[in-house]
Amino acid sequence: SSCCSIYPLQKVFCFTFFPSSPAPLQRFVSDVKRLLTSVPWVAYEHINYTGWFLVFEEGEHSFVGKEMNDKISSLRLITDDLHNPQITLYEHINYEGKSMVIRQATDLTRGSSNDIVSSHKVQRGAWLLCEHGDGSGFRYIAREHENLPNYKAINFNDKLSFLRPLRPGKA
């Protein structure tokens, strides 16, 4: 028997697999698919939502990749209102310097704003911030009302190259 809880606590999956009966596995898969149609969730490598992570949004996910296979230790549902996302990026720490209001996926490598951001405020939604223009490298989830005045705190100062809002499900 195995259990998996998702924070904030909305659902606890407990399941037992019997080789002669696929029903529990089918029920578990059905519950996970239903979650993936309502809100995104983030699978973290370590407990307490730390380490490398993967974002799962609406859709089928049959494989988590070799980097995360058998390594997921915590899951977090993103329950923020994801409609009409907006984040303000600032050139300097403490929300100073040139600012940019972003409302959609943005590749900063295509302009003069690549690798200059040092702080942000999220007005609406949840955002995936990435070190490289292709979404790779260091990544950070920025959520509504969780403002970050100094990217040095997460070793991300002047490294932001790509960001996108997390997408709401259709359910």
UniProtKB/TrEMBL annotation:
Which SUPFAM superfamilies does the entry mention? gamma-Crystallin-like
One Pfam match, given by its short name, reads Crystall
PROSITE patterns (UniProt xref) = CRYSTALLIN_BETA_GAMMA
> Any idea where the Beta/gamma crystallin 'Greek key' domain is?
39-79, 85-124
The record ties this protein, via InterPro entries, to: Beta/gamma_crystallin, G_crystallin-like
Per UniProt, which keywords does this protein have? Repeat
The text of the family note is: Belongs to the beta/gamma-crystallin family.
Its name, as the record gives it, is Beta/gamma crystallin 'Greek key' domain-containing protein
Q: Which organism is it from?
A: Calidris pygmaea (Spoon-billed sandpiper)
The lineage is: Eukaryota, Metazoa, Chordata, Craniata, Vertebrata
